[in-house]
Amino acid sequence: MPHRQRKRRHADHPAGPSHPAPSPDHPAVTPRRVRGTAPADVRRPLRPGDATAPEAADLKGGPRPLAEPSSLGSRGERTGGHRGLLALRSAIVSGAPARVPVRTVVTATGAALAALLVLAGVARVSGLALFALPFVASAAIVALAPAAPFAQPRSVVLGHAGATVVALAVTAVGGPSIWTAAVAAALTTAPMLLLRAPHPPAAATAALIGLTAPAPWYLLTPVAVASAVVIASGVLLGRLLPAHRYPAYWL
Length: 251
Prior knowledge:
- The chain is an all-alpha fold and 251 residues long.
- The chain is 55% helix and 0% strand.
- Helix 3 runs antiparallel to helix 9 (220-240), helix 4 runs antiparallel to helix 8 (201-212) and helix 6 packs antiparallel against helix 8 (201-212).
């Protein structure tokens, strides 16, 4: 009995399409597209690796090859252009350090003035040649960059002492001249690096010795005395000025 009822039901409702046939009164309804899917008849977009494009056929009927990959504006070209813009921007933008506050400028200027006045006063009272260019440069470095490695007492003392020994030896062999001064100033790089005491004004000390050929006691006076005065003025300024901490280390 159930089998006959199923047959009768199928006869009353024959199998057919789920949607009625389109007519002028009932136009065809397009199925709604589910989000995240693409219609079945949408073709894959052309890629640079495809040989020809069916849509690119010209009017004469022949297939037309795709354009070269370089004309498609690939991602690599866009990345290269972006890097070029970054390189141009870095070349235009200044790499100088940031501006320091006005208070720091005033403090550093006052410290440099005080250190040089102390050096000049000691030179005037003692009559020693302490106010020479190398020692003036040392005092300025201690005042302007008290935390720098080449401004520390170790660098000041060992830098000037090593440069004096080297320059006295070179001058004793070659005699005073501008060439001796150049060689002596260049050779001071070795003891400064070996002693871990870089101090650029020491090269000026070696050049001065190569030009003037002083006596051997030049190592004690004015080199040792001037170095002590520079360090003492830096320590004094470090006590008086809270923002001027000196030295960062001694040895």
